[in-house]
Design goal:
InterPro entries: Anti-sigma-factor_SerPK (IPR050267), HATPase_C_sf (IPR036890), HATPase_dom (IPR003594)
Shape: globular
Distance between the termini: 21 Å
Protein name: ATP-binding protein
Order of helices and strands: EHHEEHEEH
Pfam families: HATPase_c_2 (PF13581)
Number of domains: 1
Strand content: 25-35%
Number of strands: 5
Domain Histidine kinase/HSP90-like ATPase: 16-139
Radius of gyration: 15 Å
Structural class: alpha+beta
CATH architecture: 2-Layer Sandwich
GO molecular function, one term: ATP binding
């Protein structure tokens, strides 16, 4: 049974201006812990972009009708074989399977984030928690798993 190597937690308000703080917190975590497991710089950039997409979606969509003081919780878990990011919001649940992927070669405003997110990482799961919050789980496996 694998155990968690490291974990961290951040709570921020629903404000897009806090994205830089969220990304700096995550980068610091990565610098401290992921280098020990031979994660590549490319993997870290993809994870940071996935985190940014998940956070901005929570602010723009899940919390768009809620006060900016409404918090978003972010957990990061480093396992020996993967990194997990969990983004918790208080918005209404949505069905990601109901989103249609934009046609290649077409341009539209919005609608690309969910599909970008799924291409950046190995697993994306969206579910409603028992506490009434939504959880976006983002998983990226380490190099040893990908080989």
């Amino acid at each position: 049974m694998l155990s968690i190597v490291q974990q961290d937690h951040l709570t921020v308000k629903s404000e897009l201006k806090l994205l830089n703080r969220v990304q700096q917190w995550f980068e610091q975590f990565c610098l401290q812990h992921l280098s020990k497991l031979d994660w590549s710089e490319g993997q870290l950039h993809r994870l940071n972009l996935a985190l940014a997409e998940g956070f901005t979606n929570a602010v723009r969509h899940a919390h768009h009708t809620l006060p900016p003081e409404t918090t978003i919780d972010i957990d990061v878990y480093l396992w020996i074989d993967r990194l997990e990011i969990r983004i918790w919001d208080y918005g209404k649940p949505f069905n990601p399977d109901a989103i249609t992927e934009p046609e290649p070669g077409t341009l539209q405003v919005g609608g690309y984030g969910w599909f970008l997110l799924r291409r950046l990482v190995d697993q994306v799961v969206y579910e409603r928690g028992a506490d009434g919050r939504n959880c976006l789980l983002i998983v990226k496996y380490g190099l040893q798993k990908q080989q």
